[in-house]
Amino acid sequence: MKLEKLLERLTYRCLRGSLGTEVSGIVNDSRRAAEGSLFFCIKGAVTDGHRYIPDVVSRGAKVLIVQEDVTSSEGPEIPDDVTVILVDDSRYAMALISAAWYGYPAEKLKVIGITGTKGKTTTTYMVKSILESAGYKVGLIGTIEVIIGEEHIHADNTTPESILIQEYFDRMVRAGCDIAVMEVASQGLMLHRTAGIPFELGIFTNIEPDHIGPAEHTSFEHYLSCKSMLFRQCRVGILNADDAHLQQILKGHTCEVETFGFSEKADLRAEHTQLVSRPGYLGIAYTVTGKMNFDVEIDIPGKFSVYNSLTAIAICRHFNVDVEDIKAALKKAHVKGRVEMVKVSDEFTLMIDYAHNAMALESLLETLREYHPHRLVCMFGCGGNRSKLRRYEMGEVSGRLADLTVITSDNPRFEEPEDIIADIVTGIRKTDGKYVTITNRKEAIAYTIRHGEPGDIIVLAGKGHEDYQEIKGKKYPMDERVLIQEILEGR
C-alpha cells in the first residue's frame, strides 16, 4: 500500500523521502521490521522506539513514523531511501495508520465500547449473549480473551495496542461479524489505542479510584478525564445515572446521551429488586421500566448484577432485540471467574471470583452477606512482588466481613508464600475474624469444601479466570475448576 494512502487522515510533516513509497507491512516491534516495512517510533514508559531506528533500517524498514526530528546531524544515520514522517504523537498516528492499513474495518461494524472501573467484562459477555440470541454475529475484545467466530485468543491487555485492535476488527469483518463489543480501559484511551474508532455506542458503567500511580494515572482527575474521552468519540453515550461523577464524565461530550440505573431520572430503570436464593444458587430479579418494561431474573447475585444486566439491556435496545430473547440470553450469560458458581453440594454454595484487591473483595463480600448465609467463608491469597498494603487491606476486609477466612497462596512470584500469608494475617488481626492458613491452594480449597456447612456461601477469591500459578518466574498450570473436580473425585 502507498504511504500517502496510509497517511490520508493524519496531520503530519514529511521530513525526507517520498509519500509514494510502497509499504509492505506496519510494525511497532523492531524485531518484526522487514524489507519495505513502516516502523512506529513509540515513546513508552520503559523504552523509546526512536532508539531502534538503526536496527529497523538495517532490517529493511523504508518508513519511520517519528515524534521528534531524527534527521538532524546529531540523529542516527538513516539511508537515503528511507522516508521519515514527523507527527505530534506516534501512538495516535499508529492508530490512524493501522485503521487505514486494514481498510477501516471498524466502519464496517457497529462497535460498542464499554468503559468503567467495574462491570466491563461481565457486561461485554451479556451483550454478546443477547445479540447473538437475536441472530447477530458478534466479536468481542476484552480482559479475558478476544473472540472471533469460534476462535478464542488469550488477551494480554484489556484494550490491546491499536495495530492489534484493527487486525482483530479486520478478522471480525472477514468472519462475517456485524457487531464488535469491546472493553475500553482508561489506559487504552490515554494511549490512543482506540483513536479513530467510530464507536456506535459508548458505555460508562461506574468509576472509583483505581489505577492511580506513576505508571498509570497521575490522579483521580486524570483517570476521569481519560474515561470521558470515549464520549467525544461515540454516536450515542449510555451512562450510569447513579454515579456521582456522571457530569464530569460527560464534560465536553459530543454524543447523544441516555442513562440507566435506579434513579428516577434514568431513562432505563431497575425497580422492585428481589434476592433469589436456594442451595447452590444465588440470583437477583427486578423489573425494567422506562424505555422498556418487563421482568427479568439473573443467575448472578448482587446489585452489581442488576447494573451489568441493565447496561446490557440499554445497549441491546438499540438493536431491536425482542424482550424474550433478552430474558433468555441473560439467563445463559456467564463469565469465567466472575461470580462463577461451581456445583459441589446440594447444601451450600461455592463460587470462584477474580476479586484480587480490597475494593473488589469488599464489594463482593458485602453483596453476599445480603443473602444471609449460615456462614460466609472467604478463601484468598495475594500476589508476590506487589504492594504489601493490598495484603493488609484484603486481610482486614475479609476478617470484618467473612465468618471464616482461609488464607492461601496466589501467584507468589519471587516471594515466599508464607511471608505473604503473614502480611495478610497482620491485616486480619485488626479484626475479630476467624481464620486458618493453608499454603497449598488445592489443600485450602479442599478444606473449604470438606468443612462446608448447610447454608454456607464459600468464595474462592483472587484467581478468577486465571489458569496458572506464578512461582519463581514460571507459570505452572493451575485451574481452580480442575482442582475442585479432583477434590470431589478424591484425587
What does this structure look like?
30% of the residues lie in helices and 24% in strands. It is α/β, with parallel strands linked by helices and 491 residues long. It has three domains: 3-100, 3-Layer(aba) Sandwich (Udp-n-acetylmuramoylalanyl-d-glutamate--2,6- Diaminopimelate Ligase, Chain: A, domain 1), CATH 3.40.1390; 102-332, Mur-like, catalytic domain (UDP-N-acetylmuramoyl-L-alanine:D-glutamate ligase); 340-488, Mur ligase, C-terminal domain (Protein-Tyrosine Phosphatase, Chain A, Alpha-Beta Complex). The strands form four sheets. It has an eleven-stranded mixed β-sheet with strand order 9-8-7-10-6-11-12-13-14-15-16, sandwiched between helices. A six-stranded mixed β-sheet has the order 17-18-22-19-20-21, with helices on both faces. A five-stranded mixed β-sheet has the order 1-5-4-3-2, covered by helices on one side. A hairpin with a 2-residue loop joins strand 8 (145-148) and strand 9 (151-154).
